[in-house]
Each structure stands twice: as structure tokens, then as C-alpha cells.
Design a protein that fits this description.
Layout (H helix, E strand, L loop, with lengths): L2 E5 L2 E4 L4 E8 L8 E6 L7 E6 L5 E3 L7 E6 L4 E6 L8 E9 L2 E4 L3 E6 L1
Parallel strand pairs: 2-11
Antiparallel strand pairs: 1-3, 3-8, 4-5, 4-9, 5-6, 7-8, 9-10, 9-11
Length: 116
């Protein structure tokens, strides 16, 4: 079955960095677009943070452009999110996502907390 397992979250001061990882299994990772979403406290899980296609093309939310970098390792079936210059407003649970046959699959998420 499809599994997405996020890791790498934690507590960091504003201006710091974190690297999130998402280990994927149960599907052909290399041919699918992978994405990171986040859910801030009290908000819906609907903010796309970044996505990377099978060909390596990327797109980012305006709020993270220039600070976050998404990448993928097809040999390891893992997608990463490097987060630099973190801000308190980046505080959220970050979820890994893949769409297969029009169905959204999610991991359990990893908490990122940025203190001011």
C-alpha cells in the first residue's frame, strides 16, 4: 500500500533552518509529482508549499520562494524540503502528498515550530 512517512520537523528559532524528508513506498515514485503541504494552527490543510515533478520541475508558494527548496532522490524514493530563513509564520504541520489515479495520499505529517 501507499505509504508516506515524514521526518525532520522540530523547534527552531526564527532565521534557522530545517530539512524535512518524506520516505515513499507502495507506488512508482520516480514517475509521480511529489508535493509538500502545510497546515497552520487553526487553518485547513490546503496550502501547497512546494512541488516537484518527475522531471525535476519545481514550483513554490510565493510565501516560501527564495527560502525553501524541494528536491527528490528517485534512487531512495525520498522527497526533501530544505527550509532556510524560517519565520514564525512557517509554523505548521507539514505533510507529504502524492496524487495517484486522482486520489490524494498523505503522510501523518511532521510538526515545524519557529519561535520568534
Amino acid at each position: 500500500q501507499v505509504q508516506l512517512v515524514e521526518s525532520g520537523g522540530g523547534l527552531v528559532q526564527a532565521g534557522g533552518s530545517l530539512r524535512l524528508s518524506c520516505a515513499a513506498s507502495g507506488f512508482r515514485f520516480s514517475i509521480n509529482t511529489m508535493a509538500w503541504y502545510r497546515q497552520a494552527p487553526g487553518k485547513q490543510r490546503n496550502e501547497l508549499v512546494a512541488a516537484v515533478t518527475s522531471g525535476g520541475s519545481t514550483n513554490y508558494a510565493d510565501s516560501v520562494k527564495g527560502r525553501f527548496t524541494i528536491s527528490r532522490d528517485n534512487a531512495e524514493n525520498t522527497v526533501y524540503l530544505q527550509m532556510n530563513s524560517l519565520k514564525p509564520e512557517d509554523t505548521a504541520v507539514y505533510y507529504c502528498n502524492v496524487i495517484l489515479n486522482k486520489y490524494n495520499y498523505w503522510g501523518l505529517g511532521t510538526q515545524v515550530t519557529v519561535s520568534s
